[in-house]
Write a structure and sequence with these properties.
about 280 residues, alpha+beta, Signal recognition particle alu RNA binding heterodimer, srp9/1, binds zinc ion
Amino acid sequence: MRAFACQNCQQLVFFENSECLRCGSALGFVPEQRDLLAFSPPAEADGTLTALRGGSRHRRCANALIAGCNWVVPADDSGEGPELCASCRLTRTRPADDDPVGMAAFLDAETAKRRLVFQLLELGLPIVSRLEDPETGLAFDLLSSTAEQVVTGHENGVVTIDLAESDHAHRVRVQEELGEPYRLADGMLVHAELLIGDSVVMVKDAGDDDFRALLCTYWPDVDAAWERAVAAGAEVVFPLSDQFYGERSGRIGDPFGNQWMLCARIEALSHAEIAAREAHLDQ
Ligand SMILES: [Zn+2]
Ligand SMILES: [Zn+2]
């Protein structure tokens, strides 16, 4: 996450800040500019904020209080325009106002979601909401499993999050139950997929990985490809072997710090068959 400077006093300020701690200027994140702007004091009586630089006019997102949101929306002279910012707008379902536990977790989840949306914007990825595309547009259902059974996951653009997972102890329990070490609620991008031509490209934030990039490639004759790569001096990271999920794969490193998965599909398995084999492995 990059840092920002207060446009009034140059103090270092952060993505979540709604006020400069040094000079007191009101701050707000403008998604269209991917920048944290400082506004001139005081805000007008109707809540309109005027950018210190450039004079553009904005209003705070309507979720400023309940979601701790510091993003702003454009304010045109008619007073019309969106109420919710580009991130809050993506939430389709949230806990009820009279659910204090759910609402506290909602605030944490929205904070993480703003970081995620920011990262998607930084990557130049299009964000198409469910309102714009009712079939596959992006929407978030932020639900509390204290009230109902909730399964965190995603389907056709709808991301469902069990808000109870913003509680660290609960999340660690679910991590262990599901064997998912990468289950996070801090906005880190763990797994996104892009379709380029007929190839799926996976994107994630850099973690404590020991590679620069990891490319997973499929081969008609993976053994021959493996032998050629190793003979050419590739470093073996994981040897080529048959995997329980129906693939034969191995991982090599190149001299530039990248790693390559060489894979072949050797069995056609259903999700249920893979899950059954995985459960068997764990015993
Ligand atoms: Zn300042
Ligand atoms: Zn907002």
